[in-house]
Amino acid sequence: NFMLTQPHSMSESPGKTVTISCTRSSGSIASNYVQWYQQRPGSAPTTVIYEDDQRPSGVPDRFSGSIDSSSNSASLTISGLKTEDEADYYCQSYDSSNVVFGGGTQLTVL
Amino acid sequence: EVQLMESGGGLVQPGGSLRLSCAASGFTFSSYEMNWVRQAPGKGLEWVSNIVGSGSNVYYADSVKGRFTISRDNAKNSLFLQMNSLRVEDTAVYYCARKATVATTTRRFAYWGQGTLVTVSS
To answer: At B97, is the pLDDT very low, low, confident or very high (cuts 50, 70, 90)?
Structure first.
């Protein structure tokens, strides 16, 4: 089984841009799609990016996703940060028999 | 509107058993792969298990294999998780989550329940 590694926490100011990384431990990051979920305290996760770089309807275009095969990682970029973006963010991928979540990144916007 | 509602959580002693349920509505339940995902207090998300629409294939995380059993009743639009030999480290909010689409092989979760808390403690 592979693992997905994220930074434990990040902090940035309103209006700035932040990029959260998610590195796959084994196997190619491109072999299976990566999703990103946002979770606020006391709530279930919601999808902000799916299939590497797709945004669900209703998610602002300030959120974008990408993968980089050279570093075997995926990234979630949030531009024009707002205080409402403060939350935990999880990457997620899978293989034929498992689903794997990253450890989560606590984003502080202050 | 898709709705998922978990129930069955509570306090149980180590070594005990508990059965979680997830009532689904607003979609053709039998068509969708369903999952259980858990979150220990203050910790991250951990996938637990999934089951295909027909119930014929099931998968488990190594941490619960041999102790937990996932099942479904398509006639009653319900998903279950039978948890045996519970450990303190199984303490978590358990969410049921629906795979986003029927057609693709992408394993992503578009709909989640509100979760039910399982506490394993003596």
So the answer is: very high
* Percentage of chain B modeled with pLDDT above 70: 100
Give the whole-angstrom CA distance, residue A108 versus residue A81: 10
Mean pLDDT (whole number) for B62-87: 98
A51–B113 C-beta distance less than 8 A:
no
CB B80 within 8 A of CB B93: no
> Min CA distance, B45 vs chain A (Å)?
6
| Residue labelled with tokens 């399982």 | B118
Instruction: Please check whether residue A18 is in contact with residue A12, taking contact to mean a CB–CB distance below 8 angstroms.
Output: yes
Shortest CA distance to A103 belongs to which of B78, B57, B43?
A: B43
Tell me what percent of chain A is helix, strand and coil, each rounded to the nearest 5: 5, 45, 45
Task: Please provide the distance, in angstroms rounded to a whole number, between the alpha carbons at the two ends of chain A.
Answer: 37
Q: How far is the CA of B6 from the CAs of A27, A69, B32, B55, in angstroms?
A: 34, 38, 17, 19
Longest Cα–Cα distance in chain A: 40
